[in-house]
Amino acid sequence: MNDFLNKIRMPEKSNSILNDFFSTFFVIIFGLFMGVFSKFLDCTASNYLPYIFQAFDITNFLGRFSIWIFFAVVISFYSRSPLKSALNVFLFFAAMLLGYFAYTKYIAGFFPKSYILIWVMFTAASPFLAFICWYGKGEGNIAIIIDGFISGMFLNLTFNWGVFYIDMPYFPEFIIYILSNILLFKDIKSFFKIFVISIFAAIIWKTFFPFIF
Fold it and tell me: Which structural domain range is residue 206 located in?
């Protein structure tokens, strides 16, 4: 009987492995494309780009942290397991770096070593952060705390703030902030808790990692 049940379950397991393969393959291709695309925009005069690219300042937008962190959180949340999340996010950033700096070196004709070092360090840390982020899509207080720290990160990336001031210097990042909170939304009660935690998390992020913001 057990052998019969195992035979029945085999296609489901095979489909799961196949889905994992294609999801990881898509993440790599997407990262490679975004790396090449962002560098292509960076090397192209804005007046040669479509109007919508100029209106939303896409070139500078892709040169900032928030959009890439948002991609990483989305990939993490939609991965099947925390280990798969760590792998997918790492491969996304590795592929993005490969595309970006291959274009920089072989087409643009230069190679900024100091700049690549920052992204290499970020890529190296990404699987550990993605592993933790994956648990934010769950239920309970731990998930809410994780979501609060994610939201606090986007809060700092969107607003410049201090004791007596708050400013939003770049509107596209506000859109990312809204989308990130939609992604984190579970219910009204949880959302309120996440928002409160995000304020304290923003202070912690800004205190210990001011160079990001």
Answer: 139-213
Task: Quote the tokens at residue 166.
Answer: 């708050």
Residues of the chain above pLDDT 70, percent? 87
Amino acid at 87: L
pTM: 0.84
Query: Do 66 and 30 fall within a single domain?
Result: yes
CA distances from 15 to 12, 22, 23 (A): 5, 10, 12
167 contact partners, CB below 8 Å, separation of at least 6: 159, 160, 161
Q: How far is CA 41 from CA 47, 54, 61, 94, 114, in A?
A: 11, 11, 10, 19, 21
The pLDDT tens digits of the residues spanning 50-108 come to 777 777 777 788 888 899 999 999 999 999 999 999 999 999 999 999 998 888 878 87
Given a contact cutoff of 8 angstroms between Cβ atoms, the answer to whether 149 and 199 are in contact is no
125 token code pair: 């840390």
Q: Residue 1 contacts by C-beta under 8 Å, 6 or more apart in sequence?
A: none
User: What does the alpha-carbon distance between residue 193 and residue 150 come to, in Å, rounded to a whole number?
Assistant: 13
Partners of 161 in the β-ladder: 166
Return the amino acid letter for 100.
Y
The 3-state DSSP class for residue 166 equals strand
151 and 126 both lie in a single domain: no
